[in-house]
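Q: What would this chain look like folded?
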Amino acid sequence: MEAHFPSRRHSWLMNFVDALWAAVGLLVERDPQVTTAVFVSLQVAVLGTISATLLGAPFGFWVATREFGGRRAVELLLNTATALPTVVVGLLTYALLSRRGLLGDLGLLYTRTAMVVGETLLIAPLMAALTLAVVSGADARIHETALTLGASPTRAALTVAAEMRRGLLGAVATGFGRLISELGIALMVGGNIAEATRTMTTAIALETSKGEFALGLALGILLLAVALVVNVGAALLAPPHRDS
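A: My prediction, written as C-alpha cells:
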C-alpha cells in the first residue's frame, strides 16, 4: 500500500490548532508568565500615554490656535517625528539613561520607568500632531466665542476639547495602541527582565525564538484583546456623529 503523509499545509494547520488550544489553556489557567507580562505592558503603556498626552496635546493645541512665522515648519517637524523608528528612540533613551548619559546617575536603565520615558518620547510628537489635526478641523468660532465670553485661555481650550472629544479620544487610543504593541524601546531600555520589565511583545519575541509558540500565541491574543477593549472604550466615551 502507498503510504499517505499529511501535506505541509495540513501539518501547519494542525500545529496551529494545537498551539491555539494550548494558548487558551494558558489564558484560562492565568499562567504567571502571561499575567505578569500583561500587567507590565498595561502599566507602561498607560503611564506612557498619559505623560505623552500631557506633553504633546497642549503643544498641538497651541500650534493649532496660533498664527506665527514658521508654523508650517513646526507642523512638518511634528509629522516627521511621528514616524521615528522605535529603535532610534530607544537608542536615544539608552544614551540618556546609561551610566555616561545625562541622567545616568538616577539608575533608571532597565526599569519600567526607563520604558515609560522612552515610550513618552516616542508618542509625544504623535499626540501633538494628532491634536493639531483635530483642533485645526474645529470651528474657530468655538475658541473665539469662549474667549469673548470671558473664559481664560485654559478654559477656552477645555471648551474646544469638549467639542472635539471624539477626535481627541481617538488620538489617545491611537497613542496607546502604538505603545501596547511597542517592542524596540522595551527591549533596549527595559532589558526584557522576567517579572520586572518583560512585556507582552518582548515575551512573544522571546518565547517564539525558544519554540514556545503556544505561549507567544496566548500573549498575542491578549495583545489584540487589549487593543480592542481600548478602542471600544474610546468609541463608547465619544459622542455619536451628528447628522448634517
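The chain has a mean pLDDT of 83.
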